[in-house]
Design a protein that fits this description.
Layout lengths: L5 H15 L8 E6 L3 H13 L5 E6 L1 H10 L2 H4 L4 H12 L3 E6 L11 H14 L1 H8 L5 E5 L3 H8 L4 H15 L7 H22 L3 E5 L3 E6 L7 E2 L2 E2 L5 E2 L8 E3 L6 E6 L4 E3 L2 E11 L2 E9 L1 H8 L8 E6 L5 H4 L7 H4 L5 E5 L14 H6 L8 E5 L6 E5 L5 E6 L2 E2 L4
Parallel strand pairs: 1-2, 1-3, 3-4
Antiparallel strand pairs: 5-6, 5-18, 6-11, 7-10, 8-9, 10-15, 11-13, 12-13, 13-14, 15-16, 16-17, 18-19, 19-20
Family: Belongs to the peptidase M29 family.
EC number: 3.4.11.-
InterPro entries: M29_Exopeptidase, M29_N-terminal, Peptidase_M29
């Protein structure tokens, strides 16, 4: 039997279209996908039209060509983002179109490429796309991210040379983790969202002053802004349409006060940053800023990342995930932030989501900065969760309550 089957691909496509971006009648859809995902994309496009989408466009990528570009193009070309590339995505967002990103990363794609070239190219693209990104981080439009296996990614995950078996095994893991293997994946996702909403609402009612992290890997205090907003599960676009930004998702998250982070953190899973692996790293924070960084692998890449702009050395997100999440229970490192971040409590350096403070989507960058919400051209998650992690919420009166205890939710449910 061919694996995955047509039925499985169709169910996954329906989940991405109906629950991920939740395409609306007459709405345009932009799909960003690698060429290896062609079969799945065909199902997504068919499902999008069945849901009433109009003007479905696919933007293909090819990792072989991407690598050749980094190897051979002059830096001046890598740093130049043509206006037509910006206009295409920006005009789509301005017209209210939805965006589905299909990720299939090769964790070793840019291994051996000069870290400075990668950093400068990424910085140029991030700066050029700032207006477009505001539609994403402010939930002005529906957007979602899903993943499909490729041979190189699957072989890395399972540490094997048997590509066919690795791809099949990774498909099985993905279908299980995103609930495609359940009789009604959409209903299963609705139930899952409700669980995350309950936790989100509890934390929002608490309005903790700050969080304390303690484990073998983390000794950190994180101040929270006044009127911060915890989010998790589904989101709601400006149009009122609900959507699920990340599939999978197991987190509830909010913005820290970027000025009030102190202590040290070590990663518990590798960070795959645009085809470069960063691992065995330790960050020291003082008054919010990263003042020291060490890494066993990819240290130069990480240092370039922290130099992207002024906000890159500060935190933009704190996210809580139980150690018993389905992704964690798989006992796999996916080398894919979409998956690894949902196996583990994590933090993000760089930009915060304005929606993580009350009325933040209506504020200017300057207004957000005044209340402690970080702004940057980057947003990179890194994993710090473990089975021995305890996270306390501390109230303005000094009361300390466990939120995560020994890796698991400790709040009343």
């Amino acid at each position: 039997m061919t694996f995955p089957t047509t039925e499985q691909l169709s169910k996954y496509a329906k989940l991405a279209v109906r629950m991920g971006v939740n395409i609306q009648e007459g709405q345009a859809l932009l799909i960003n996908a690698p060429i290896e995902a062609r079969d799945y994309v065909h199902h997504v496009v068919e499902e999008a039209y069945a849901a009433g989408a109009e003007n479905v466009q696919v933007s293909w990528s090819d990792e072989v060509l991407t690598r050749k570009k980094y190897d051979h193009e002059p830096l001046s070309v890598l740093e130049n983002v043509p206006d037509w590339q910006i206009d295409r995505v920006l005009s789509h967002a301005q017209d209210g179109g939805a965006v589905l990103n299909i990720l299939a990363p090769n964790p070793d794609l840019l291994e051996g490429v000069d870290a400075e070239r990668v950093a400068k190219a990424n910085k140029a693209r991030s700066e050029a796309m700032q207006d477009y990104k505001k539609y994403i981080i402010n939930d002005k439009i529906q957007w979602s991210i899903v993943s499909v296996p490729t041979e190189k990614w699957a072989k890395k995950v399972f540490n094997t040379d048997n590509g066919d078996q690795a791809v099949q095994d990774l498909w099985e893991q993905i279908f299980s983790i995103v609930r495609v293997d359940q009789p009604d994946p959409i209903e299963a996702w609705k139930n899952h969202n409700e669980t995350l909403f309950e936790i989100r609402d509890y934390l929002n009612n608490k309005q903790y002053d700050h969080l304390e992290y303690h484990s073998e890997y983390v000794d950190l205090t994180v101040k929270l802004p006044e009127n911060h907003v915890w989010a998790g599960g589904g989101a709601v676009a400006e149009t009122g349409a609900s959507f699920n930004p990340n599939m999978p998702t197991e987190e509830v998250f909010t913005a820290p006060d970027y000025r009030g982070v102190n202590g040290t953190v070590k990663n518990t899973k590798p960070l795959n940053y645009n085809g470069n692996l960063i691992d065995d790293f330790e960050l020291t924070f003082k008054d919010g800023q990263v003042v020291d960084v060490k890494a066993g692998k990819g240290e130069e890449t990480f240092k370039h990342l922290l130099e992207s702009d002024e906000g890159a050395k500060y935190l933009g997100e704190v996210a809580l995930v139980p150690h018993s999440s389905p992704i964690s229970q798989s006992d796999l490192v996916f080398f894919n932030t979409l998956y690894d971040e949902n196996a583990s409590c994590h933090l993000a350096i760089g930009s915060a989501y304005p929606t993580n403070v009350q009325d933040g989507e209506k504020m200017s960058d300057a207004e957000l900065k005044d209340i402690g919400v970080n702004s940057s051209i980057i947003h990179e998650d890194f994993m710090v969760g473990s089975a021995d992690l305890t996270v306390y919420g501390v109230t303005s009166t000094g009361d300390k309550e466990p939120i995560i205890e020994k890796g698991e939710w400790a709040i009343p449910r």
